[in-house]
């Protein structure tokens, strides 16, 4: 898993999909999320996401964003699942913000600091 932290007060930019959309930009973005085929369905992604959100909370929290794919009702090719599934992220409290492709969404969640 790769998580990127934006510097405080970062200006709107092309690498930040939610900026310029009428709301605040993310403090964090989950940019890459990969589980090898041999280990899928064993809770690896869930454990990685839980760990990442815990680390974000300990680092001060903030708005976390990911771009992910909806998989309900279809078999999504693995190459599209570089940031987990929308369904998994929603189980952790992420909400769909903006659709950016046929099945792709920007999802976000505010993580409280601990």
Automatic annotation (TrEMBL):
Q: Which residues belong to any copy of the N-acetyltransferase domain?
A: 24-66
Q: Where is this region: Disordered?
A: 1-26
One Pfam family name is: Acetyltransf_1
Q: Which residues form a coiled coil?
A: none
Q: Which Gene3D superfamilies match?
A: 3.40.630.30
Protein name (record): GNAT superfamily N-acetyltransferase
Native organism: Streptosporangium lutulentum
Show the taxonomic lineage.
Bacteria, Bacillati, Actinomycetota, Actinomycetes, Streptosporangiales
């Amino acid at each position: 898993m790769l998580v990127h932290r934006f510097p405080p007060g970062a200006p709107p930019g092309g690498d930040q999909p939610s900026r310029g959309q009428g709301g605040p930009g993310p403090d964090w973005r989950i940019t890459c999320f990969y589980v090898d085929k041999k280990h899928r369905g064993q809770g690896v992604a869930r454990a990685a996401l839980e760990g990442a959100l815990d680390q974000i909370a300990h680092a001060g929290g903030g708005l976390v964003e990911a771009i992910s794919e909806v998989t309900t009702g279809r078999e999504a090719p693995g190459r599209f699942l570089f940031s987990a599934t929308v369904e998994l992220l929603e189980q952790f409290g992420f909400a769909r913000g903006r659709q950016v492709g046929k099945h792709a969404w920007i999802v976000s969640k505010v993580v409280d600091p601990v």
